[in-house]
Specification:
Length: 191
């Protein structure tokens, strides 16, 4: 894949990607094959390697799910140990995925020692705009690693829940938005 195509898929401006190539900070291997062509080897980067260290992030929405939070942290830590990566930070919190002011998530993302942020599911990092976080991490030479990416059907359902959650949050407030979104989906499904 050429550098311009790669930059577009990563949400990075092609000039920024070219500057990274010149400076040697491009997060994937690339080589110049002509006077104007730079090829990026995307297959060489299929299994992300953490140079600095991993930051593990777990989140649940309510206090009733606290045991799930502990299990989530345990699964992330077990994966990191099995993979042989060095964990530099672990953050776990009970907060809404719609809340953009989650202190522990912000602390993890701001830590310069964390080169790879690891979450179990994409929605654990946030309900909306996770792709923006991913692009920001990529632009700084870091990455987001989702252990359980899910199926396409799960993504479609998740997208529908996100849209309904957003509308319900505006109508009814953030607390009950998720449950109302699920009820609306169930009502649409059953009748």
């Amino acid at each position: 894949m050429n550098l311009t195509e790669w930059a577009k898929t990563q949400g990075v401006h092609p000039q920024t990607a070219y500057r990274w190539f010149r400076e040697g900070t491009l997060p994937v291997p690339a080589q110049r094959v002509g006077p104007r062509t730079i090829l990026v080897n995307i297959n060489a980067n299929t299994t992300p390697k953490a140079i600095g260290g991993l930051g593990l992030y777990a989140r649940v929405s309510s206090h009733e799910q606290k045991t799930d939070l502990e299990l989530q942290v345990g699964r992330l830590a077990a994966w990191a140990a099995k993979s042989g990566h060095r964990v530099v930070r672990v953050e776990a919190e009970i907060a809404s995925g719609m809340n953009g002011r989650r202190s522990k998530a912000r602390r993890l993302l701001a830590d310069p020692n964390v080169t790879t942020v690891v979450v179990e599911h994409k929605d654990r990092l946030g309900r909306m705009n996770v792709e923006l976080v991913e692009a920001t991490l990529s632009a700084t030479g870091r990455r987001l690693l989702v252990l359980d990416d899910g199926e396409i059907e799960d993504d479609l359902v998740r997208d529908m829940v996100e849209v309904l959650t957003t509308f319900c949050a505006r109508l009814y407030g953030h607390r009950s938005a998720k449950s109302r979104a699920h009820k609306a989906l169930e009502a649409a499904e059953h009748g």
